[in-house]
Amino acid sequence: MRILSPVLGLALAGCGYVGEPLPPSLGIPERIHDLSVIERGEKLVVRLTVPAATTDGMLLRRLERVEARVGTWDGASFDPERWAAQARGIENSVTAPGPMSLETSAREWVGREVIVAARAWGPKGRASEWSNLVIFQVTAPLTRPAGVKAEAVAEGVRLTWEGPPGAAFRVLRDQAELAMAEASPYVDAAAVYGKSYQYAVQAVRKSGGSVAESEVSESVSITPEDRFPPAAPAGLAAVAGVQSIALSWERNTESDLRGYYLYRSVEGGPFERVGELLDAPAASDRGIEPGRRYRYAVTAVDQKGNESARSAVVEVVAP
What we know:
This protein is mainly beta. It has 2 helices and 22 strands. It has 3 domains: 36-137, Immunoglobulin-like; 146-222, Immunoglobulin-like (Sandwich); 237-317, Immunoglobulin-like (Sandwich). Helix content is 5%, strand content 43%.
């Protein structure tokens, strides 16, 4: 029976199994799957993400280059290498994986259908497969919207502009997309009085699966203020009683309504305000004199003190 020394036994117990050495990675980047194209002004903008891994599962930290190309194809069956040989390269200085945006002139392709694709070259000079192919119809550049104006209105902020016919318009607020508008004007009903905003507009045209955008317009700034009174109250009615006249009207629906003022005219004289601000759409005018003619109107007031026009007048003779 062979007995191992204590030292040798501990050494063997602390060692893990060492397998066969792995072959060196070929360094071929994984294929790009998310390439997309839009036309912006006179440029084609290509967006893509180079995966940070190789085809054999190794981490990819750097690239030799990213090869992106745009060109036409008239053949019956698509051959990527023959297409690439005649397609125009999109210049870039990308040397690391991750999301990226590349640009190239669209001018020479106007009116033509092009194919756009890209592939990444790893640090060992080996290329990935070509990315997903994007077939894109290049159109005449959209002109940039001009004359953008913003004004405060009772409904919010009203935007107006001049833009190319046949386009839709992306409305931007504080550099983020707010809405798509079919035409000018557009009202931002979510704007808050007293808060500052910056607006801009971009023309957009879709043709099949292709999207063309203009350059973004110059921005315009506004801090809307509430200078807009509520609507005049409606439905004012008066009922004469003993030494009093009861009045009622329809409740206003404005969210910032503060209350109502009652106005009275006696025997055709001028209208004068009666009492303090009323919370409810009703009032009782007491201390009237029998046989005299009274005329009434009401106004609505908001939280900023903006007062509406007077309601329709009602007339009653005290019994």
